[in-house]
């Protein structure tokens, strides 16, 4: 049984922050690297303690090209304004993405559960499940604790396994699961602990991209990403010892 299940407070490294991303028509939650997630969680906990230090209001992330506004829970680009893709698009901040603090995850592809449901599960776990798990003396097949609502139920098993039983994709937030899943194992804490060493390498060179006057930001970013990937492949091929 994981020690995280018995802790009253989830360890900082077990919490994972994620940002919502749309790419190629697919929407999903993408985790921040361990370094960014740790800094976001530290800022979050300091703010919960009542800290008014402005250093905890905005945290730079994603290679210091974005920052997370802790008040609005948005990840915002630093070096560009995020203009509209189309004059007919009413969304003013299309480059800004939603950010979520996740404690509970479904273990199929480690996507976070809906924030409201996670709060309910965490309350049930701390209040009822932890005391019962500490008193378990033998394994069995009957749940030691249950939580029931209209659309789903949670079952805590004696061995520490926890199941979410649902008929809808609601608990999985904006990401829909396919295949008619009815029973999903869930985890308190992410599958990879956040570490300070998990971060992008330091920037050693700057590459300035000159683009046409009519070129849009999305295509510029795409071409820059292609340059990075190509340079990385060439470096790995010609200088394998550097990696």
Automatic annotation (TrEMBL):
Q: Which domain of life is it from?
A: Eukaryota
The GO terms describing molecular function are: phospholipase activity
Alphabetical list of InterPro entries matching this protein: PA-PLA1 (IPR058055)
A single Gene Ontology CC annotation of this entry is: cytoplasm
Q: Which PANTHER family match?
A: INTRACELLULAR PHOSPHOLIPASE A1, PA-PL1 PHOSPHOLIPASE FAMILY
Q: What is this protein called?
A: SJCHGC04326 protein
What organism is listed for this UniProt entry?
Schistosoma japonicum (Blood fluke)
């Amino acid at each position: 049984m994981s020690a995280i299940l018995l802790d009253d407070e989830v360890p900082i490294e077990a919490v994972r922050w994620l940002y919502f991303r749309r790419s190629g028509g697919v929407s999903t939650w993408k985790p921040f690297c361990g370094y960014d997630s740790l800094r976001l969680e530290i800022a979050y906990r300091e703010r919960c303690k009542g800290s008014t230090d402005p250093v905890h209001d905005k945290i730079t992330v994603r290679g210091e090209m974005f920052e997370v506004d802790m008040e609005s829970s948005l990840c915002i680009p630093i070096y560009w304004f995020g203009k509209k893709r189309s004059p007919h698009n009413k969304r003013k901040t299309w480059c800004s993405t939603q950010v979520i603090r996740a404690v509970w995850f479904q273990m199929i592809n480690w996507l976070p559960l809906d924030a409201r449901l996670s709060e309910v599960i965490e309350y049930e776990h701390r209040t009822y499940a932890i005391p019962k798990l500490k008193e378990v003396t033998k394994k069995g097949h009957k749940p030691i604790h249950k939580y029931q609502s209209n659309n789903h139920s949670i079952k805590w098993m004696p061995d520490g396994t926890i199941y979410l039983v649902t008929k809808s994709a609601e608990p999985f937030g904006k990401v829909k699961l396919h295949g008619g899943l009815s029973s999903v194992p869930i985890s308190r804490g992410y599958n990879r602990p956040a570490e300070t060493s998990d971060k992008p390498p330091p920037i050693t060179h700057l590459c300035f991209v000159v683009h046409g006057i009519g070129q849009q930001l999305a295509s510029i970013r795409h071409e820059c990403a292609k340059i990075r990937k190509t340079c990385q492949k060439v470096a790995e091929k010609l200088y394998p010892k550097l990696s």
